[in-house]
Task: structure prediction
Amino acid sequence: MESAAERDQSQAPWLAHFMRRGVPGGETMRIATLYGPRDFRLEEWDKPQITADDGVLVRLRAVALCGTNIHYWEGFGQIGPGIPVAYPLPGGFGHEFAGKVVAVGPRVTRVQVGDRVALDPSEGSACGSCFYCAMGKTNHCEQPRHSSLFGFVEYMTSYERGLYKLPDHVSTDEGSMLSAIACSVHGVRRALTPGDTVAVLGSGRLGLFAVAAAKHLGASKVIATYKYDFQAQMAEACGADVVLRGTEAGVEEKIREQAGGRGPDVVVETVGGWANTIQQATDVVRNYGTVVVLGTFNDKVPVDTWQAMYKDVAYVFSYINCRQGSRTDLDLALEMVAKGKLPSKEMVSHRFPLEEIQAAFELMTRKDAGPQKAMQVVINP
Ligand SMILES: [Zn+2]
Ligand SMILES: [Zn+2]
Result:
């Protein structure tokens, strides 16, 4: 039987780019590997070891599930531009982590063994000195270093730079949501001027985080659209001033009315998939306003470019998170959770051990099922 390392290279050579395996130390760990659409298998792979002076080994305790995970699990779409999903897909597509530091390299000073941390693998593996890193845009680093294989695994190695210590009152499960909150913070802060009226289209996870981020960053009024009733309640708990059902007739007019008749200064699109919410955002944003696109789409999206031109609309497409000014997006996300700016404890609706990962993914596809809604599903490896 071929080794896991050989499999990385032969089946999915692109994996080596961003999730090279750690140096095997003889010990093994459990990993949930996807062998095909909806086909998870539990395996034992090599446990990674620290190889860098600033390296950190983390025992993952929470991996938050994300919408993109579901796309891959269902066998649909791409894992990146022009990169189709290739099976077997190691746990690598899970990417929102928190856990406990269990070993540190000799030059690590900011964290110690025993600290509970959230991890930002993108910031952590950034080189720190290239053109984009010098700008703080670590999400576009030109020479990222290798993390160990990551995803639905028990252990991963990263680097000190990408670790965020969790305060005692923030749980590890909440910590695993910080990367996703940071994605919403990233998009919102690129467009928002304090005092703006903001519409957030969609009250799924990213939408709710965008509502909370907009309020935290100084929006004077936030209007959120939703699909399910429980999302409406959550949007209000995140600080939305107005909630509107996104599918109801005339919702665009209602959004404009709530924003002084002219339309919101900023519209944050968070739906993606097959919806054409970029067009809806273009319809409702005021002239000279900004549309932020956080959703990931299943196909290329048509937009009325004449309308966009006549309205002088600016579009901001937003890719994960990084730093703007003195604060990283994840730093602000942690501040929001630590200060109770969103109901993060209530948002963690379901927890599953690694052995039940299949059930966790199935639940994610039934968003409106069950008395307890699937807001944030967390795997506890
Ligand atoms: Zn994600
Ligand atoms: Zn760099």
Observations:
- The radius of gyration is 21 Å.
- Confidence is low (pLDDT under 50) at residues 1-23.
- The chain has 15 helices and 19 strands.
